[in-house]
Sequence to fold (83 residues):
Amino acid sequence: MGGRTEKRIVRIGGIVWKSGYVVLGIIALSYFTWMSTDKKAFSARHDTGIWLHTYELYFSGEESDSVEERVSYPLHVLKTYDR
Fold:
C-alpha cells in the first residue's frame, strides 16, 4: 500500500513540475513578445533604462546633435542588426 502512495506523490509532483514549467514558459514568451513589439517599454526596461535616450532617439528616427550619442555602442548595434 505504501508503494502506491509513493507512485501517486511522484506522479502528482511531476504534473505540478511540468505545469509550472509550462506556465513560466508562457510568461517568458509573453514578456519577450511585449518587449519586442513595444519600443517604448523596451527602451525604458532594457539595461534598466540607462540607454533610454539613445533607444528613443533611434526609434523616433531623429538625428542627435551630440557626438557621444551618434557614436554610442547601443546605437551602433541597433543600426547594424535591427532590420
About this structure: Residues 27 and 37 are 16 Å apart (CA to CA). Helices lie at 2-37, 39-45, 52-60, 67-70, 73-81.
